[in-house]
Amino acid sequence: MTWFEPEGASWTYVDRKLIPARLITFAVPALLMLAATVVPAVIFGGAVWIAPAVVAVGVAWTTWVIVRQVGAHAWAERDDDLLVKRGRMFRRVTVVPYGRMQFVEVEAGPVARALGLARVQLHTASPGTDASISGVPTQEAARLRDRLTARGEATLAGL
Amino acid sequence: MVNTAPREWTRMHPVSPFLGAWSVFGAIGAYWFFNNAPEWAGGGGDGWRPAIITLVLIGLVIAVFVVAGAYLSWRMTTYRITDDSVELRKGILFRQSKQARLDRLQAVDVVQPLLARVFGFAAVRIEVAGGEGSTVALEYLRLGDAEALRNEILALAAGIKQARQGTAIPGTMPGTGTMLGSGPSVGAGLAGAGPAGAGFSGGAEASEHGSEHGSDHGAVLRDFIPGADQGVPAIAAAAERDLLVVPPGRLIGSIVLSGPFLWLAAIPLGLLVAVLVLTSEVEHMLFAIIGSSFAGLIPVLFAGAGFVWSRLNTGFGFVAGISADGVRLRHGLLETRRQTVPPGRVQAVQMHQPLLWRRRGWWRLSVNVAGYQESEANVSTLLPVGTQADALAALWLVLPDLGDPDPAGTIARAMTGTGAEGGFTASPRSSRWFDPFQWKHRGVRATDTALLIRQGRWVRELVVVPHERTQSLGLSQGPLQRAAEVATVVVHSTPGPVSPVACHLSRDDAFALLEEQAARAATSRKRQTPEQWLATVVPAVDEVLAGDDVTVAPDGERPAQRGDAPGSGGLTDNQVPDPTQHTPGGER
């Protein structure tokens, strides 16, 4: 057991379409950076090519990280709480009891919407709770939200 | 006269605009002084005279607008209290309507800024944990009205809960009886007194009876005399017993032994030494350097002075007591504040001991209370400075049941222990790469009702989080932590000065802690919902209050005096509740 594998939790991994969604968002700054470094390199040549090379390595690395991250992002609904895990290099697991949820938020940006994805975010009374699930298919996101809300109401506790 | 909380829409006291806008008048006064001050004091010269007249005129116009605005704002601000909420309507152009639900009540504060205090007024701040701007602040009422309002709010809040439980709480009434009997001098106003639940029915009657009197806003002039008759609240405050008093000497000592103060003191001392020791050339050079960096020093000086002042101002005359309404804290040098935090509203406690306090054995306790959004030193201090016994007593105030057979011993060991001492799960040896100095001092331990997190080699810290107050849990591990096979567990608490984090536990311990803590939090939530706090806490409170020389707080009569003389009726050691004698509350 190298990482947290709780009993009775069946992980639901996020949709692989989150990879293109995040890559498209990342493409804009990446291309701008590349252009900004390639142009002077073409003009001056020589050692100036180091800059675009560094940027290219950075872009490749980030792409790799995005692919790996999406593969590690999952959630699990247990009897009393919701688990969200994310990250491969910096791993995180958040456990949110249903009774502690103040509200559930579903949001989708233009790219995610085009790909039929949404982000489900859980809020508790603590600002430290970072329980968001990116890349949930839109239909599933709505169902998840309703399910979470229902369970939250059933077990709601005061602060 | 009998003060009651108004059931009809009522305005604040007519002098409120002046109390609230005093800073504006202060600014105008300062401006006037600046312009009329002689030249050597930095005032304007002769050539400025025509300009000064225009500026004064502009200032007057602004003052007129401010006064008119304040008057309108006062006209438009009304509040009332209902059986299950406090409502506030305000705003001239943009109307705002706020409602604080009493079953969501987190804390009620009676605050007296200096000016309000001089003239016998107070603001009531009702915290309901609804996020930014959810505080319902009633500024300003006569102190007597403010007290009456607070008492009624607390009685109603407890009453609502009691009604929901459907049964009267046994054990409350006998305690009430003895307390009332022991305080005959308090007068008829206490008829509805006692633990909040008991006062509920009496209070409702009294307020109906009192509504025909209304709030007597006519007698403004009399109110300007400090200490004038403030009336007796229809519902008296629940009987209260002071358990902890911070003597001014100890508070000043604790400030002197704090880092910021020592830095502040070190600067002039260093200069003095420099003047005495060094030759004049070096001195000139040194002063040149200091002169050039003076602008940079000023913010540092201000920050240090601000820290010292805030510690002194908020910690002065600190008294912590217990009543059936909850924990009562009162403190303040210029601005006084009387806080009431109902039982079970404290989300997390932190015990903190800087290195320089260790010889004296002093500790400082901070708490997270949902709803408090002001600066932490003002509202989130449970004990500004106290001995270990004081710290234990203060912890007992907010967490009467620690779920441990030997709570005092456990906490005492947790405060000073290292490694696995005291049943703690310590951080493994591999975590020394992250924490070369304090890794031996890190550890966690769960009791039946709370999680203890210990850390710090030089600055000792112990965080206590009740299981049922856990919001959510986090587990994290970076690449280096993975190499060392450690992980960090975070308990998410409501906003406040306390952030419970168990760093660098061994991986398997962290996994186990996360699982167990999630399970424990779930069980605790099911077992103890906040609605039942009366049942679990009141017997314990009664036990304390039923002890010898019970002081029934004559809140309505001369409350200001209590705040002014914290030393009187002060704390003797035998008044500290023995945390080893544990409360029957938790066993229910």
- Which two chains form the greatest contact, residue counts included? A-B, 31 and 37 residues
Largest sheet features of chain A: 4 strands, antiparallel
Number of helices of chain B: 19
Q: Pairing-aware structural class of the strands and helices of chain A?
A: alpha+beta
Kindly provide the name of the CATH class of the largest domain in chain A: Mainly Beta
CATH fold type of the largest domain in chain A: PH-domain like
Backbone shape of chain A: elongated
Q: What's the count of strands of chain B?
A: 23
β content of chain A, as a range?
15-25%
How far the N terminus sits from the C terminus of chain A, by CA atoms, comes to 35 Å
Helix content of chain B: 40-55%
Instruction: Identify low-pLDDT runs of chain B.
Output: 164-228, 548-588
Domain count of chain A: 2
Detailed description of the structure:
The complex is a heterodimer of chains A (159) and B (588). Chain A has 159 residues and is an alpha+beta fold. Chain A folds into 2 domains: 18-69; 74-155, PH-domain like, CATH 2.30.29. Chain A has helices spanning 18-44, 50-72, 110-114, 138-155, and strands at residues 12-13, 74-77, 81-86, 91-97, 103-107, 117-123, 131-137. In chain A, strands 1-2-3-4 form a 4-stranded antiparallel β-sheet. In chain A, strand 3 and strand 4 (91-97) form a beta hairpin. In chain A, helix 1 (18-44) runs antiparallel to helix 2. The radius of gyration of chain A is 20 Å and the shape is elongated. The model of chain A has no long low-confidence stretch (mean pLDDT 91). Chain B is of the alpha+beta class. Chain B folds into 3 domains: 2-167 and 195-235, no CATH class; 248-308, no CATH class; 344-538, no CATH class. The radius of gyration of chain B is 27 Å and the shape is globular. The model of chain B is unreliable at 164-228 and 548-588 (pLDDT under 50). Chain A binds chain B through residues 1-4, 6-7, 80-81, 89-97, 99-100, 124-131, 155, 157-159, and chain B through 103-104, 106, 129, 345, 347, 370, 468-479, 482, 490, 492-495, 499, 508, 511, 514-515, 518, 521-522, 525, 529-531.
